[in-house]
Amino acid sequence: MAVLGFARRAPAPAPTDATLAHFLQGASIEVMPRTAEKVDDFRTILPRGTRVYIAHIDGTPIEDMVATAARLRAEGMNPMPHFPARIIRDRTTLADWVARYRGEADVDQGLILAGGVAEPVGDFTTSMQLLESGAFDGFRRLHVAGHPEGNRDIDPDGSMKNVSEALLWKQKFSERTDAEMAIATQFCFEADPVIAWAEGIRAAGVHLPIHIGVAGPAKLQTLIKFAIACGVGPSLRVLQRRAADVTKLLLPFEPTEFLSAIAAHKAANPDFPIHAAHIFPLGGIKTSATWLDTHSKDQE
Fold it and tell me: What is the CATH number of the domain that holds 245?
């Protein structure tokens, strides 16, 4: 993911809102091994202790994943690798991955998810199977996937039935594990539906903290491409409306408005279950890190 470059001078950052700055404390970000290679030293772009998810794309060697986790740990970050069920062949493979992460990178947290491949390569098809395997006994923190706008891979009919049942199962699992658990969601662009979803799952009995996924600054065309590929639903209309405004078409889209609305709702409702932001750096890791640094500082 290359850092964005534009012919025109970038606009000056807007003054940071204190509510947004407070909400962004403890935000996480995501990398892949090949994007991590573009950063000379993560200490120069992220605060010490930042949780950095490591996306495991099908075909990425486990050696590259573990090396990235070890590097992040050495540079003061908290690595959280993905464990996608559908690309893990069997229990032996899963145990080997966990042993490597723990032994070589001191990893004690992971994002447990089904994974986006159509056909499983082996024995696992769901994140629940991974959680039940016992492989993560002793992990300090386990995150699971959330889908505020649904997921057509899980619910082909467009409903929320299966994803809702899965969240209720994970809530019950959280009550019998010593690990801290939270929901990390797909990226979204519109606040009102996300707020309604978060309040809805809480009313249904899911009390896990939510880390809301958001796309970092990127070209509009880039975001639309990723949104369609990842199945982002109703909030795609935010991007479509912006695309219709020729005065904004060439400017990078930033998540400031979306997260400011979430932060304001959280400030007004302290028990609201969205606790943190997770940044998908679709426009480049350095671009997202700069945005996060700018907006997490209270300039009032």
Answer: 3.20.20.220
